[in-house]
Amino acid sequence: MAVEGSGEPAVVAGSPAASAGAWARRLDRLDALVPRAGAVALPLAVWPFGYDLFVLPKLAVLRLLVVALALLRLARWAVTGRLARRGTPLDLALVLVVGSAAVSTALAVNVGVAVLGTYTRYEGLLTIACYALLFRLAAQAIDGREAWTLVRSLLLGGYLVALLAILQWAIAGAAVGGGAGETARTFGGSLRAASTMGNADALGMFLALLLPLAAHELLAARGAGERVLAANVAACLGLGLLLTYSRAAWAGAALGVAVVAARPVAAAVRRRPAVAVAGATAAAALAVWAAAAHAGPPWVAAAAARAATLGDLTGGSGATRLHIWRDSLGLIAARPWVGWGPDTFGLVFPRFATGDWTPGFTIDKAHDDLLQVAATQGLVGVAAQLCLLAAVAAAWWRGRRRPGALALLAAWAAYQVTLLTGFSWLPAAAPAWLLLAAAAAAWRAGPEPPAIAARPVMARPARAAIAAPAAVAALTAALALAAAPVAADTRFRDALVARAGGHRAPALRDLAEARRLAPGEAVYAAAAGDALLDVDPTGVPGPRADPSAARVAYADAVRLGDARPSVKHR
Q: Which CATH architecture has domain 482-568?
């Protein structure tokens, strides 16, 4: 039976087609819900029972998100017989990005590090592939309307992270104070907020990504209630960003907000030029008076002093970056085409360093993302990254007339500015890829193709027979990729606590279990060498030392990619 004028078979209530349609709609809702949940969970994820409290939990959430979205795609195929969905304008560029990373991994100086990444960084091939899969699966799961729901979920996660940053600064800053100079944790006597990111610069990158979106929500708000809510979110994000004292993040956020606000501000100036001039004059006078009189709390003075160094590349961390960039050029020239392998910068840089630019700390990143890609993936990787940026610009251009299109581009541009003196790192990078998925969906025109194929190629029982073991394999992979590393890190922390308490045997058992759960982690092997050598805090072996077993553990650590001189020279 056909519906008159439709040209398509009617769907009878209670029929297999109707049942498949109902299940497809449920899966659609889950498809949209999972990225939203991930947008909130990713920045907030911490695991206080492990040693890597902040980054490894986010890696686990990223991998779980990818597996969950892939399982939903598999379930859709099992129910409807339809697996393929419309692609995105970034698909070719993504293939080039992941492909270049795969080639550099195959030829890497250390393949294990290139695949998994280093401890607390994890920016290896596996993570790069997860970024690409997260983007594509999320972008295909949502439409333009749901894209802004995903954006608001990111803003919710950012708001909570920024609120925790403000509380952290208020409580911990007052309790421990801050150093007078510039460090990773302090500036000008003020604590640099890090919140659930564990690093002030990573927090700054994340909040810089979101602040243009918050500005857009404020300018687009309708009614007093929406304006108050949007103003609250924007103010919290802005204050959290300020307390990171991250200059690149400030610059990126300023650019993004300026792009979003330029047209509304210009329109307001045209409507009331006298009021605009008076307001700008009053704000400038107040700023000059506050700076001259040193008015306001100490953190304001610290922020002003930090802002005054925005253009200074010859002092503090700016000078350090200049040295690293210069030395990185030699590293790149040594393997210009495919690089040394993802996340292997720290293994190779000591060969090319002309000085000890960060005494007591290992330099494992180029602190400029294009230089980092050039060093680890070569000029082929740089070309792939530039193709990705061009594809993003082209996608925006095609969808530039859609609501909020410019704000999404401004947010992505703000993130890219932070990468000029930083690097892709999971705490900020994973939310940035989710944002890009929302942008691709929002810039896309036209409805999604129908979810159910008219004639599935394979019968439903046969599809279910294939999908069931595939789902089991995916869940097993989720446990191996997400749960096992977290469990290993928990045992690693337990081992360190046991060693600190003088309990060597339990520490060795915990370290053995950590190495079994995460056999590719060099830091665990090095810690096992320390325990076997029974070294004290100064590095001197103790009376219970087992030198031969310790040498094996240290050799494993070096083979797995531990580049610390204290390990290599044991």
A: Alpha Horseshoe (1.25)
